[in-house]
Structures are given as structure tokens and as C-alpha cells.
């Protein structure tokens, strides 16, 4: 299956660093960047406002495949992700 062309946001999100957590789950994490939109952080349940530093996180070994995992990515406050992933 040929890969679908990615838009800029996805291409940027695709540059994730793999993080293997002690619970056995693995994630890709985008470089931290100021949020361009408002998201709800899965870590604390609060909004990530525009301009707040956030990371996009998606499952590394998803049974749904990499593209689906990327589409299901969640945006976290950088501090909340660090707290979750330590
Ligand atoms: Zn948060």
C-alpha cells in the first residue's frame, strides 16, 4: 500500500522520538512546540492554550497501524507528558 501524502502538520508530527515506558507501551513524541490550536491535555484534563508548549504523542506499536496511530495522536502539556512518562 502506497503511503498517503502527509500534510505539513502530520509531517512535522511524524518526526517523533520513540519513548519506551516501563509499562511496556511505546510512544512517539513530537518535538515540543507552541500550540497552534486549543487542545485538551489527557494528562491534566485542562486546556492547552494557543502558544503554550505542547507535544503530540501517539502510540508506537498500534495494532491499527502507524497512520491510524498518528491520526489518533493526543496533545499534552510538555510538563504533563514528562510527568506521565518518567
Ligand atoms: Zn496538562
Helix % is 10-25%
The overall pLDDT average reads 86
Helical segment tally?
3
Distance between the first and last residues' Cα: 36 Å
Q: Uncertain regions: pLDDT < 50 for 5+ in a row?
A: 1-8
Q: Judging from the principal axes of the Cα atoms, what is the shape?
A: globular
- How much of the sequence lies in strands comes to 25-35%
How much is the radius of gyration in Å? 13 Å
Tell me the major beta sheet: 5 strands, antiparallel
**How many β-strand stretches?**
7
Summarize the structure.
The chain has about 90 residues and is α+β, with helices and mostly antiparallel strands. The protein has 3 helices and 7 strands. It has helices at about 10-15, 65-70, 80-85, and strands at about 15-20, 25-30, 35, 40, 45-50, 55-60, 75.
Write structural notes for this entry.
- The protein has 86 residues and is α+β, with helices and mostly antiparallel strands.
- It has one domain.
- Helix content is 23%, strand content 29%.
- It has 3 helices and 7 strands.
- The N terminus is likely disordered.
Strand and helix map with partners:
Blueprint: H1 8-13, E1 17-20, E2 26-29, E3 33-34, E4 39-40, E5 47-48, E6 53-59, H2 66-71, E7 74-77, H3 78-85
Antiparallel strand pairs: 1-2, 2-6, 3-6, 4-5, 6-7
The chain binds zinc ion (ZN).
What are the salient characteristics of this protein?
86 residues; binds zinc ion; 23% helix; alpha+beta; five-stranded antiparallel β-sheet; two-stranded antiparallel sheet
Amino acid at each position: 500500500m502506497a503511503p498517503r501524502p502527509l500534510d505539513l502538520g502530520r509531517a512535522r508530527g511524524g518526526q517523533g522520538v520513540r519513548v519506551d515506558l516501563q509499562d511496556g507501551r511505546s510512544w512517539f513524541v513530537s518535538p515540543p512546540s507552541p500550540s497552534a490550536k486549543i487542545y485538551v491535555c489527557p494528562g491534566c484534563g485542562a486546556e492547552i492554550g494557543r502558544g503554550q508548549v505542547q507535544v503530540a504523542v501517539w502510540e508506537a506499536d498500534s495494532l491499527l497501524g502507524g497512520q491510524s496511530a498518528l491520526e489518533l495522536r493526543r496533545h499534552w502539556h510538555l510538563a504533563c507528558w514528562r510527568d506521565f512518562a518518567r
